[in-house]
Amino acid sequence: MKSVAWLGSFATILGVSISNMVHFWSDSSFVVKLFFIFVLLGAVCIGIVDIHTWWTSRAKLHKDSQSANAYMLKLLKRGGAAALFANNLSWVREAPEINEYLKSQANHGRDICLFVPEHNDLTMQLAEGGVKVRTYPALDYEPSARFTLLNPNEAGSSLLAVGSGIFPKFYIEEFSDQSHPRVIAVARDLLRILEKVSDLVDA
After folding, report:
1. Residue 36 DSSP class
2. Which of 18, 28, 169, 175 has the fewest beta carbons under 10 Å from its own?
3. CB count, 10 Å around CB of 36?
4. What is the rounded CA–CA span in Å between residue 91 and residue 94?
């Protein structure tokens, strides 16, 4: 964490260790002591921010599909364009509220695109409801990853949610342009590649 790095660097510069801290403090001038206190308080503040950032962005456990679907609906309601990368969208099949929400949002002009290996009855239904569906059957590949990228074409405001595991140990972790720009870039490139492949199939 940044706070630990701050303290470590500062202590190294001053040659301070646990064993000679008392000696250092007694021999230091008022200005040095004041400076040290400010640095310590700064490190504590940064530490609090670090902990808060870690706590809010950590992978969250979902023990059942109801919990995961509730999270997904909340995520989608953040607004903006949405790209959903999945295999067969079984989780949407089990969540009629999300199904209807996707179609409703698409009909109101929101850019929602699904990336799946091939069409099934659910994706056909969603496509009829206005949701864009990109397929890549020529690749003959079944993905194991599941992720949703909000604002995929807006650098700086994208948010990626990646799901992994199986219930009752299914985790969803979030990544933002600010915290993990390279991870966002990889997901964005993958979707653009699949768009190209889908265009070739439809041509």
Report:
1. H
2. 18
3. 17
4. 5
Give the global pTM. Answer: 0.75
Q: Which domains does the chain have, with CATH numbers?
A: 2-57 (no CATH), 60-202 (3.30.870.10)
pLDDT of residue 28: 75
At residue 3, what are phi and psi to the nearest 5 degrees? Answer: -65, -40
Contact 115, 134 (CB under 8 A): yes
What tokens appear for 54 in the block?
Answer: 């870690």
pLDDT of residue 17: 53
pLDDT at 55: 46
pLDDT value of residue 12: 57
Cβ neighbours of 70 (radius 10 Å): 15
Residue 132, classed as helix, strand or coil, is: strand
